Amino acid sequence: MLWMLGGWFRMRAPKNKSEGSVVSLQPIVEIRDVNFTYDTRPVLKGINMTFHKGKVIAIMGGSGCGKTTLFRLIGGALKPTKGEIKIDGQVMHELDQAGLYEIRRKMGVLFQFGALFTDMSVYDNVAFQMREHTDLPEEMIRDLVMMKLHAVGLRGTHALMPAELSGGMARRVALARTIALDPMLILYDEPFAGLDPISLTAIGSSIRQLNNALGATSVVVTHDVQESLKIVDYIYFISDGVIVAEGTPAEIQASDKPFVHQFVHGEMDGPVPFQYPGGDYKTDLGVSA
Amino acid sequence: MPLIRSMRNIGHRSVDTIWRIGFAARFFVLILLNSGMSFRRFHLTVRELFFTGVMSLIIILVAGLFVGVVLGLQGYETLKSYGSESALGTLVALSLVRELGPVLAALLFASRAGSAMTAEIGLMKATEQIAAMEMMAVNPIARVVAPRFWAGVISMPLLAAMFSAVGVFGGYLVGVVFIGVDEGSFWSQMQSSVDFQHDIMNGVLKSFVFGVAVTVISLFEGFDAPPTAEGVSGATTRTVVQSSVVVLLLDVVLTAIMFRGI
């Protein structure tokens, strides 16, 4: 574990996104023909994705398109109605609780607003998984916690409580906690939501650099096109439960697909309409035609 | 039509209540099954003992003292008319040990510690801390819920005992020190009429059962709370109301079994 962190401290800003990362042909995550239905409402329809080791992948789409559902399916919090999700060769929905917990020990999840434990200090938050899942002596845990916090630039906050941190700092502490056990797969749920530009850049570059240093695979579920294009290797666009576009950032930027164009350029109207479907406007206003 | 609608509403509420009772029972079994960590890492339970037990101590002691004082005053006035003032110690002790100690301590415990447990777990759920724990492969029932359950179960009989002890002291203060009942008869009558097995142990058993009931309700309501501000506030209110009703109901049942042999 420590040698990986040693790699992190020698790290510099990479010229290429995947520079320094371990890229393998063996997929870490395979999503095959996944369908998911809430009650009778289909949310995901026939999703196929493959995430390889060392890559940072973005899953994008408008609100309610099903990306958070997909995120929860990958994390094993939901079971697909049809199809399967394999992580490290294991079908998630076939695992019992012990099996699920075993695979989750190899995963890290960053929640939208950090989800730090509010009754614990920053230090204890980062040390939490180490204490729960390892028998490391407290001195080594201390060193590791300090290294993780240093990696996100917040070593000096170790004695603070989560309530004393700003939103961006809380997100970075949560990131340090996410990588506490050097996961092979890191899931990020809207990591850029509500951050100022400085925190946005800090989180964005940390995601990329940590992925390279740990040789992990990162999946970023986000709305933020511009920040994502800077750090990811591959992008999937989801709309209405299906993948409508996919490609590298360069391919996405050059895409002439109307949905991608609207999303990337932030156009108000297009394939995703500005107006939520409703009745006749004049009738609603009580004006006869 | 309104009749059918109201019947349908009653049906929905009944089914919903039965479902919730079922979930609560399942939740209770899960707590028991996942209790190993609470004892293997006892510091987790000790920490919760501080928050649920020690932090409830002041309200329990103050309420116990006042109840004892009032019992002393009221009891003296009633016993005086029969010329039995010397039985004041018996009256105060039996009232507290058998009944008022366990019941009032449980009601105060539900209001102070139970509502706090519900709000804390409800907010942990609303801020995704429970989900984060699950994703870190840490079972939240074992790590968060079970230590709080055992802390509640351990602290409730101790709090009830302290309530009764302070209440007896309050009765002594009023009866002996201020009114002038003979100190010797106050203590000796109490000693001869309070039976360890029949009175004290039954009181302890009552408070243990109340502790289990209040703590399970508090934890279940927190865990089941919708992850919104309104959801957590509603769950906290339900904890206090349901705990109070259940404690009083259980008291009727337990008193009937223990003291009437039904």
Notes on the protein architecture:
The complex is a heterodimer of chains A (289) and B (262). In chain A, the strands form 2 sheets. Chain A has a 6-stranded mixed β-sheet with strand order 6-7-8-3-9-10, with helices on both faces. In chain A, strands 2-1-4-5 form a 4-stranded antiparallel β-sheet, covered by helices on one side. Chain A has 11 helices and 10 strands. In chain A, 40% of the residues are buried. Mean pLDDT of chain A is 83; it is low at 1-15. In chain A, α1 (2-9) packs across α7 (197-214), α4 (122-133) runs parallel beside α6 and α5 (138-151) crosses α6 (167-178). Chain A has one domain (2-271): 3-Layer(aba) Sandwich (Rossmann fold). Chain A has helices at residues 2-9, 67-74, 97-104, 122-133, 138-151, 167-178, 197-214, 225-231, 249-254, 258-264, 281-285, and strands at residues 27-38, 41-52, 56-60, 82-87, 90-91, 107-110, 185-189, 217-222, 234-239, 242-247. By secondary structure, chain A is α/β, with parallel strands linked by helices. Helices cover 88% and strands 0% of the residues of chain B. Chain B is built from 10 helices and no strands. Chain B has 262 residues and is mainly α. Chain B has one domain (9-260). The radius of gyration of chain B is 21 Å and the shape is globular. At the A-B interface, α3 and α4 of A face α6 of B.
Determine Rg of chain A (CA atoms, Å): 20 Å
The structural class of chain A is alpha/beta
Specify Rg of chain B, calculated over alpha carbons. 21 Å
**Main β-sheet of chain A: number of strands, strand sense, barrel status?**
6 strands, mixed
Distance between the termini of chain A: 72 Å
Unreliable stretches of chain A: 1-15
By DSSP (H or I, 4+ residues per run), the number of helices of chain A equals 11
**What structural class should be given to the helix and strand makeup of chain B?**
mainly alpha
- The count of β-strands of chain B is 0
Say what the CATH topology of chain A is: Rossmann fold
